[in-house]
Design goal:
The chain is built from five helices and four strands, in the order H-H-H-H-H-E-E-E-E. The protein is α+β, with helices and mostly antiparallel strands.
Length: 167
């Protein structure tokens, strides 16, 4: 009886955690099931040649995603970490739910990690040359919220940099 109570208590704690990102769970289940269904449909329709065609299509799909990811990371490797041309333009282009890979593709730069490594949510920052920056919060690889911070236009140009104004 006590074991059953512990099991229900532990499963009650897991249910809200599982419900936080249903889209990601759906993709993790749906994509492999769709691949298996494609191979089975190929076999039922055309026999082993249908399996070969379905498998070839799946491999092509995986290669397209892999090559896109490698191209994005290759472009990002040539730029400084956490740098973007304009933080204001990045702020305007961001939408909730986009992936970290999509944001890296937009900025062509890897974000500067501001949170602890391998902890959720992940915080990344992109800054521009005007001391403006956008801090993005990603939960399970999807953008949840972001904040644009711009410097005060009335502050002296060297404020906060530790540079003396004395002649």
């Amino acid at each position: 009886m006590r074991d059953r109570a512990l099991a229900s208590a532990s499963s009650a704690k897991l249910i809200p955690a599982l419900g936080q990102n249903r889209g990601m769970q759906f993709q993790r289940i749906f994509v492999p099931l769709a691949a298996v269904a494609l191979v089975v449909a190929g076999y039922r329709s055309y026999g082993w040649s249908g399996v070969a065609i379905a498998t070839g299509a799946l491999v092509m799909w995986l290669l397209l995603h892999f090559s896109r990811m490698m191209q994005i990371l290759k472009r990002a490797a040539d730029r400084p970490i956490g740098f973007v041309g304009s933080s204001v333009m990045l702020n305007a282009k961001l939408k909730p739910g986009v992936t970290l890979m999509h944001v890296v593709a937009m900025t062509r730069s890897l974000g500067e990690l501001k949170s602890d490594k391998d902890n959720q949510p992940e915080l990344y920052r992109w800054s521009d040359g005007t001391q403006s920056h956008v801090t993005c919060e990603f939960l399970n690889g999807k953008l949840k919220k972001w904040v644009l911070v711009r410097p005060d236009p009335h502050a002296p140009p060297n404020a906060g940099l530790g540079v003396s104004q004395d002649p």
